[in-house]
Amino acid sequence: MPNSYRMNLILSALLLLLANTLVAAEGDVSMHSQFQVKRHLVLSAGMDQPSDLAIADDNRIYVLDGLQSRVVVFEGSGKVRTTFGNAGSGPGQLRLPMGIAIEDRQLYVADSGNNRIAIFDISGRFVRNIALKIHKGDEYLPEPVALKVVAGVITWSDRRNHRICRNDAVSGEQLNCWGK
């Protein structure tokens, strides 16, 4: 996909997040010529805190709704396709998720409130959780807030312990950490 098209799609998705907060807006929320979103479509997702997004190869936009502990999936047109996840600590449940990334048709969620990384397939089916390790001398449980997955390695930031860590995406094994 051309880089300019992908950049336009990313900008459009960011504007979608912004538009979700514009409850007082009237009529159309104009974004990009390829991405017109009616106010009722944006608000129909009912998001409370869109905190991060990822765009799949098929141009679907996966938006993390932190306060509702779920993922909202939009078509490239802005129409809500589906949602998945709910509040809790069980398999497939999230608590105050903050970051989201896609690699190899899997969705990785920084599940901050549960101190783990949750993995779903791109259709929303739960795959597994990676429990994050506490290190000797840590004052707090790890709290992942941002993540990126490249070449089978999850790199994530630990807000509570002020460090960056890396885990193998397949085994979940922690590779290394640095920082405080």
Secondary-structure map:
Blueprint: H1 3-20, E1 28-32, E2 35-38, H2 39-44, E3 50-55, E4 61-65, E5 70-74, E6 80-84, E7 99-103, E8 106-111, E9 116-121, E10 126-131, E11 144-150, E12 153-158, E13 163-168, E14 174-179
Description:
With 180 residues, the protein is mainly beta. It has a single domain (47-179), classed as 6 Propeller (Neuraminidase), CATH 2.120.10. It has helices at residues 3-20, 39-44, and strands at residues 28-32, 35-38, 50-55, 61-65, 70-74, 80-84, 99-103, 106-111, 116-121, 126-131, 144-150, 153-158, 163-168, 174-179. The longest helix has 18 residues, at 3-20. The radius of gyration is 17 Å and the shape is globular. The termini are far apart. The model is unreliable at 19-42 (pLDDT under 50).
Distance between the termini: 40 Å
Label the structural class: mainly beta
Give the strand tally.
Answer: 14
Q: Return the CATH topology.
A: Neuraminidase
| Quaternary structure type | single chain
CATH architecture: 6 Propeller
Number of helices: 2
Strand order of the largest sheet: 3-4-5-6
Please give the largest β-sheet.
4 strands, antiparallel
**Overall geometric form:** globular
- What is the alpha-carbon Rg in Å? 17 Å
The overall number of domains is: 1
Can you tell me the CATH class? Mainly Beta
Helix content: 10-25%
Average residue pLDDT = 83
Q: Quote the beta fraction.
A: 35-45%
Question: How would you concisely characterize the structure shown here?
Answer:
By secondary structure, the chain is mainly beta. The protein has two helices and 14 strands, in the order H-E-E-H-E-E-E-E-E-E-E-E-E-E-E-E. It has helices at 3-20, 39-44; strands spanning 28-32, 35-38, 50-55, 61-65, 70-74, 80-84, 99-103, 106-111, 116-121, 126-131, 144-150, 153-158, 163-168, 174-179.
